TrEMBL record:
It comes from Pseudomonas solani. Belongs to the bleomycin resistance protein family. This is Bleomycin resistance protein. Residues 56-174 form the VOC domain. Keywords: Antibiotic resistance. Pfam families: Glyoxalase_7, Glyoxalase_8.
Length: 174
């Protein structure tokens, strides 16, 4: 879902991109094009229908930081077993601790070897959909250190995995 401010920014970018290739259009023409791309009849309709920016404090999402102690084991567990991809890796110098950004289907995690970033033994609660497919995928990998299964809880189906550093992830489908 786009906001009114995002639509205005899209029109501004469209106009700049067209101008860069010698296709000048007015700002109002760019707004009309964006409105049509978003499925509205015209800019007046779009500006009346699109939500404005939220007022007050807005939290986008949290990204947990988990402690790790062994880069190879972290990659084996989080990438090979759980299927995360690496978004970024950071070290201040080659022989200093690693800070790793991971992503899988919108779930973002950060892993850190830095002493002060996190304590081992954290638990993450991750609401999700299609928990059976995740369980089947994980069992199919025949991971030596865990074969998680779904447990029915009062609040939904839960599948728990434990990383090599004492952290636990509770995937839950309501």
């Amino acid at each position: 879902m786009h906001t009114l401010e995002q639509a205005k920014l899209m029109a501004k970018r469209l106009r700049a991109q067209l101008a860069a290739s010698n296709h000048d259009i007015s700002h109002s023409a760019a707004l009309e094009l964006v409105a049509q791309q978003l499925g509205y009849r015209d800019w007046n309709t779009a500006s009346a229908m699109l939500p404005g920016e939220p007022q007050g404090i807005v939290f986008e999402r949290s990204i947990p930081i988990l402690r790790m102690f062994d880069e190879a084991k972290a990659r084996e567990f989080y990438c090979d077993f759980l299927g995360f991809t690496i978004e970024f890796e950071h070290r201040f110098e080659a022989d200093l601790p690693l800070y790793l950004g991971l992503d899988r289907a919108g779930l973002k995690l950060h892993l850190s070897e830095h002493h002060g970033d996190a304590s081992p033994g954290a638990t993450l609660f991750v609401p999700m959909r299609n928990i059976t497919a995740l369980r089947d995928e994980l069992l199919g990998k025949r991971y030596n250190y865990g074969r998680p299964d779904i447990v029915q809880q009062d609040w939904g189906q839960e599948l728990q995995v434990y990383d090599p550093f004492g952290n636990r992830i509770r995937f839950c489908q309501y």
